[in-house]
Amino acid sequence: MGKPELNLHVDEELLARAQAAGVAIERVAERAIRLALAKADPAGPEARAAKWAEDNAEAIKDYNRRIRERGLISDEFRKW
Q1: Cα(first)–Cα(last) distance of the chain, in Å?
Q2: Cβ contacts of 48 within 8 Å, gap of 6 or more
């Protein structure tokens, strides 16, 4: 996956001061985004995945049952 482009508008004076001070603007922006995401979703991806699995447990159970009973649609193409 390529890097997405971002048009970011920063106060010119602030940007000039940061550049003059040797501040790595990209790193600061990335860190700020990570912090904002952590505040917006403190549970994080692991908790979201666990909730998804819990919310879909019945469908997953049914799917696994059907695969045990009928096999996979691609079983006839397997050479092993």
Answers
A1: 33
A2: 41
Report how far residue 56's alpha carbon sits from residue 42's, in angstroms, rounded to the nearest whole number.
Answer: 22
Q: At what angle do helices 44-55 and 57-70 cross, to 10 degrees?
A: 60
What digits encode the pLDDT tens for the residues 57-66?
999 999 999 9
Residue 2 tokens read as: 């390529």
With vertex at residue 11, the alpha carbon angle to CA 6 and CA 31, rounded to the nearest 5 degrees, is 50
Distances from the Cα of 5 to the Cα of 2, 8, 30, 64, angstroms: 9, 9, 13, 41
State how far the Cα of 50 lies from the Cα of 55, in Å rounded to an integer.
9
Give the Cα separation of 33 and 38 in Å (integer): 9
Q: What is the pTM of this model?
A: 0.46
